[in-house]
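Next comes this protein:
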Amino acid sequence: MSDLTKEQRHQAALDLWRERESAGEPAPSLPDLIKAAYPDKPELDGRSKEARELKAYLAELEIHADGSHVYHPKEIEPLTEEYKEFITNNVGTMNPTYLGRVMYKDDSITPLDGRVRQIVDFIETLPQNIVSQNTEIVPDPAYAPPKTFDKTLQLVNKYIHEKIEKKKITGRQKKEVNALTGYINTVRFIHQASMFDNNMDRELFQSSFVRYTNDKPDLTQEEVDQYIVLSTEVVIGSSIQARSERLQQLLDNAAEDSEGRRLAMGLVQAISAAQTEYNQCVGRQHKLLGDLKEKRSDKLKSQIKESASVVHLVQMWKEEESRSKLIALAELRKKGVKKEIKKLSSMDEIKARIMGISEDEVLNG
């Protein structure tokens, strides 16, 4: 290959371009063309002398290849009739993202994937009685959390039972609202909230997180992440439950003929699997919530212990001060200095110590 002339190499790149063009395939990128022209020199890139010469040659033919940094979106194949039937039959139990993952056998599909948007577009053409309320599409896939104190306070009042009045808000409540604003503006929270492609799931996730954390202003970042996972599990559990109920409805409506019995058997197995999955989800929730409560309990005990130590020191100081004053009072009594006794006995803490004993009793015993 090293004995090829420059013209022959340029022709090889041109042949690749025309081959892709005639086949209706995406145009090759510059690295593809360089590889076709110089297969014996894999170290070449777009900055090399050979690549610049190749680009100049192609430019003369009005061919402009993109570099490797230019993104070319993949073409999305139209939904087949089989896919459309699958969506129609399962839209009541699966959201668009889950439908896409099952149909394309790709668990990495997210709500922002073009294939999911194509599924959403098809769902919007279906009759409303077929589409479950659980598949209400979120207009904007990117979650935008409140960033101000007032907006976060509105969010808290939306989900808690005892509303917080702004005019009567306490210092601790202000601290809690400000802390929550920080929690829901973390990258992890925004990313997770944006993953839900219907309003119901997103609302459930948000409400769960707010109810769990609105009165905890001292969470660490690790604890915030754990509460995000816990709130996500709540949504997962709800989705599994809805799917199980839908499958049960299908089972109730199954025909009694031989085909119906085969269908019923499959539905029974699917319901059993859904119930097992739901129980596992609930178990994870209980364990995670228990761990979080235990950690918080240990933290609060530690804080109380530290506070008690400070109180104990203050109490010891007060007792030492009172003891010194009582000793001074005894010395003055011995000397019979009535004036000084009267002065000292007027002090509140000494009165408390002697429990209201009169001055005459102090002097005369």
Summary: The chain has 15 helices and no strands. The first helix runs from residue 6 to 22. Confidence is low (pLDDT under 50) at residues 68-73.
